[in-house]
Give the backbone structure.
Amino acid sequence: MTLVQENYKVKLEVFEGPLDLLLFLIRKNELDIYDVPISFITEQYIAYLNLMHELDVELASEFLVMAATLLEIKARMLIPTPVENEEEFYDPRLELTNRLLEYQRYKDAGIQLNNRDILYRDTFIKGIQEEIQSDDASLNIEADVYDLFVAFKAILDRAKGGKIAYMTVEKVSVAQRINDIMERISIAKSIVFGTLLPEDCTRMDIVITILAILELLRLRMLRCEQRQPFGEIWLYVSE
Amino acid sequence: MEKEKLIAIIEALIFASDRPLKIKYIEQVLSIIDLGEIKIDGLVEELRTNYSPENRGIELVEVAEGWQFRTKSQLSEWVKRLNIVKPSKLSVPATETLSIIAYRQPITRAEIDYVRGVDSGGVIKTLLDRRLIKIVGKKELPGRPLVYGTTQEFLEVFSLKDISALPNLQDLKQMSSAEEELEKNQTVLPLETAGLLNESGDEE
């Protein structure tokens, strides 16, 4: 069991879905895709799901659906099918095998596609734009809540790297935080979302800040904008 | 008009065009003169070979059903030093989904999800935002689901002449032979089970 765990750790985040995971297990164990030992693969698959569970990794529900499918196939293969008409014999694995093959095919096609001469990676055409460095308001892209959360996640990640120290938490309320933000923003009129929090801020600081901003957006006291995709998010005082 | 001059004109036209220039537009421009036996295709081909030598940094490429000058791929590291805007790299799931759409278009989201075994909503949005795919219509199915297909940009980004220029994957062939094999297995399996039954019967 420990061996199995160590083997999986390397590949943890690579799997895009249950089919990807199954293909990996088949390759790793050098199994014949046309004749997958369903009991063995089910065991391996579920071992992986358990490992994920232990590691507290949230798995997409599709992984569980596939586990159920595998168990169903396994059960169907255990039940002796009354072979009345030999021509009608049906391998319960067939649909899964076909799906795996088809998925593998497009996965390879994707790799092939990525190997082509890609515009702006391998080849260029004339008149490519220089880096846009303009304050032109027309370039602004409205940021949605999702963008805010991405930025929020970046701050969380940044805060994670710091030293661990225990201390009493100074409680700041959302209301207080709202006032702080409004005070800061009233001077500058605009502020970059990322600068609202110092690098050594606590998780609680971050949560309070994001709640405060969401509240301010809801009340339409602020609006937020992003000047370019994936760029910094700016907060402005609403006029 | 002599051939050399015609080639020069074609070169100028392709250079001046923003997008890959289609042969039919070159023909339109040149329609005011009598070309006689000369074929535009041949002239373009001759122009293309002019750019093959090592001392040329650009090449003439057929993309998206037209012709375009592009920098040679082996020089990409140098061109990148110009600090030009690089569109972010497509992720593996995105490329994979794109290939499903490219080969199977028009295709619904449900069909894509089924092939990938996971929800593809986010990836499809990314591809739509990047204008590599577009909604090409609705399918005559309950709920009239949207169907997706690839765009002109897709051909340009992946340096494809047209959609039929997609690599005819070996795997596609393997797949068909695999399917045949599966069919064979299907018919073979009952015999095997029959054989097993006989054997156990013999032992008794």
User: Anything to note?
Assistant: Confidence is low (pLDDT under 50) at residues 1-11, 130-139 of chain A.
